[in-house]
Design a protein that fits this description.
Number of strands: 2
Distance between the termini: 19 Å
Helix content: over 70%
Largest sheet: 2 strands, antiparallel
Number of helices: 4
Radius of gyration: 19 Å
Structural class: mainly alpha
Shape: elongated
């Protein structure tokens, strides 16, 4: 399926970008800690970290869905008959798709408004724009919703799709 290959490539790319961002953020936080010890803190660290965490999570959520590594508590489900397990899996995939696609739909206006109004977080020397985090939510949530939808179609029709790997 061409759509699966396309979403897999985009999912991997966003996951790698999120990982690089997280890695860089570690050094930024370390620099702030060291500079705070020298009484020279970096302005806006709290705002940068808060917005970065949102961006990192939503850049990587599509990969978590597609790779099957989203948190799952199936200790009761495994005791049910196989057909019931499969039906519950399909229901869970469809609910995941609905959740993330509703998140996408409901986040469009706030993201556009944030960009148009030049919304910022923080005061003083460094103000961090909020719109990149809002658009990361749209991109990551939309991709997660599509991945859940694709996985539900694969499960419903018993299609064979290879597992995503790096």
């Amino acid at each position: 399926m061409a759509l699966v290959r396309l979403t897999d490539r985009l999912t991997k790319l966003l996951m790698i970008l999120g990982a690089i961002w997280a890695f860089a953020l570690c050094f930024f936080i370390l620099a702030d800690i060291i500079l705070r010890a020298l009484n020279m803190p970096i302005s806006g660290t709290k705002e940068i970290v808060a917005n970065s965490v949102v961006v990192i999570v939503f850049l990587q959520v599509g990969y978590a869905v597609r790779s099957g590594s989203m948190l799952r508590a199936d200790f009761l489900v495994v005791m049910l008959p196989q057909i019931v397990q499969r039906m519950l899996l399909i229901l869970a995939l469809l609910l995941g798709a609905a959740f993330f696609l509703f998140l996408l739909k409901s986040g469009i206006k706030p993201a556009l408004r944030s960009y148009a109004n030049g919304e910022f977080d923080g005061e003083g020397a460094l103000r961090v724009p909020v719109w990149p985090a809002r658009f990361a939510i749209l991109l990551g949530g939309g991709l997660a919703g599509i991945n859940y939808l694709l996985l539900s179609i694969v499960e419903i029709f018993g299609l064979r799709v290879e597992r995503i790997d790096l």
